[in-house]
Amino acid sequence: MEHLVNETRSFEQSALDAYKVTQDSSPEVELVHSNSVGNECEGRQWQREQEEIAWQRERQKREWECEERGFKLNQQEIELQKLQLES
Predict the structure, then answer these.
(1) Which of 12, 40, 54, 56 is deepest in the core (most CB within 10 A)?
(2) Neighbours of 49 (CB within 10 A)
(3) Domain-wise residue ranges, the chain
(4) Distance from C-alpha of 14 to C-alpha of 34, rounded to nearest angstrom
């Protein structure tokens, strides 16, 4: 969560820097700087999406592991019941 706060602060600072540049420079400098800020923003968005995908995959993996353990426990319980019925 803290890294999201830091990213937001960094983005806010980039936006503030972009505003300052636009106040003090030519249109060409404004365009280059705004493209730079836009690329940085897109990069952060891509990184967040990749982190979300990785988190979802990890969650799915844990769910499958839990289901597999549950299945194995059920199988063991069935085998135990069979043995109890046979004896």
Answers:
(1) 40
(2) 10
(3) 32-86
(4) 9
* pLDDT recorded at residue 13: 67
Say which residue the tokens 């990069």 belong to: 43
Max Cα distance, the chain (Å):
92
pTM reported for the whole predicted model? 0.45
pLDDT tens per residue across all 87 residues of the chain: 565 555 556 666 666 566 555 455 555 555 555 666 667 777 788 888 999 999 999 999 999 999 998 898 889 999 999 888 887
Amino acid sitting at position 77: E
- CA 2-18-23 angle, to 5 degrees, is 145
- Cβ-Cβ contacts under 8 Å for 29 (sequence gap 6 or more): 21
Q: What does the DSSP 8-state code read for residue 25? A: S
